[in-house]
Amino acid sequence: MPRGRPPTHWVAPDLGSVAWAVHIAQEKFLTGDASAAATVRSLVLDSWRRSVADGVDPGAQAPPLVWDAGALQAARQASPLAGALPMIRSLLVDPAASSGHVVALGDAGGHLLWVEGDTDLLSRAEGMGFVPGSSWSEADAGTNAPGTALTLNAPVQIFASEHFRGTVQPWSCTAVPIHDPHTGRALGVLDVTGRDQVATPQALAMVRATAMAVEQWLATQQPARTQAQLQVLGRDRALLLRDGDQIRLSARHSEMLYLLSSHPNGLSGERLAVLLHEHDVPLVTVRAEMARLRKILGEQALQSRPYRLSQDVLTDAREVVEALDRGDTRAAITLYAGPLLPASQSPEISEARADLRARVRRAALASGDSQSLLQFSVGEDGRDDVEVIQAALRALPPSSPKRIGLLARLERLHKLLSVPLPRLPGSPR
Fold this sequence. Notes:
It is a single chain. By secondary structure, this protein is α+β, with helices and mostly antiparallel strands. The protein has three domains: about 1-225, 2-Layer Sandwich (Beta-Lactamase); about 230-315, Orthogonal Bundle (Arc Repressor Mutant, subunit A), CATH 1.10.10.10; about 325-415. It has helices spanning about 10-30, 40-55, 70-80, 85-100, 120-125, 140, 145-150, 200-220, 250-260, 270-275, 285-295, 315-325, 330-335, 345-365, 370-375, 385-395, 400-415; strands at about 100-105, 110-115, 155-160, 170-180, 185-195, 230, 240, 245-250, 300-305, 310, 315. A hairpin with a 4-residue loop joins strand 9 and strand 10 (about 310). The longest helix is centred in the middle third of the chain and has 21 residues, at about 200-220. The chain is globular.
């Protein structure tokens, strides 16, 4: 592309000299010119780098449409943010009819659930794939406000040519993650997209205020809820998140709390001893450890006869299962941070660990989705999985730079394990 002439999608008079300068900087960036860093915000430059690493094509017309009508409807019904729509419409969507912007509400994976607002802009937004059911995660769509906000877990504004993909550069946007008021976990993202004015401090304040109002509304829906979250994936010792505190449990307490969370009706001391170890843990040891765990959780949180939790404890393993059950493979793999308590020798936990890994793996292979396969292949469970690596290679376009790393891993596995190399385009001979 000639340096002195904007591309056909570019509207220089409307976007101004700053946007044009950033556009030129992106051209330099894509050709490896380090001088681009002097013109571009570090937040944007870092996102561009991630976009390149993820294989995003800056010339792509639109990100993937990941949900059909049925899957979209199911995702909307399952969203904890669905009930806040009237509030969002009142605060953001209704004013959009006269102010020239569109409002999008997405899930925690960057999939758009609702897109509403200015009628004319909605039809134009369809041209760049900004529609319900599409994925605007940074890995799929490159630098953009909703995807980058979720990646950073922070409010983000992206102005015009700061977007990675050319078709999005006539637009500006502001996005703010929405968090569970009890656990702090991101539930989704709220975005306003339109002309230059939506990337102003005033627009950011408006979107942040709306996101805060939604979070306050969520808190009122379950005022007595004090649900704790237990992180057991990819860690030998569980992390308990409760009331704003982070408690790192011992290996034994990690096992006990996970087992109790998996048996809401409770477990006797004898049964718990059997589940903890194939040769049984002495009952006196179980009782002593449960007494220590009660001090951590609180006297009222852990009941006896049988041992049971008086409140629900949400595990990240259960979140993965719930995502798989609703058919959201990408969300499941994103949430799957690694094996369930990998150091545990508990028979039940070992079985749960193997079952969960197998379900996630099957879902990744069945999806044929390059992002899902790549994400699983870089984790502990997938980095030496020949079948997953081969599937990821088949799903990637021949020009993707990510193929190089996958092919190198296959070659290493071939040398170490005598695994036959696949006959794929670009594979080593």
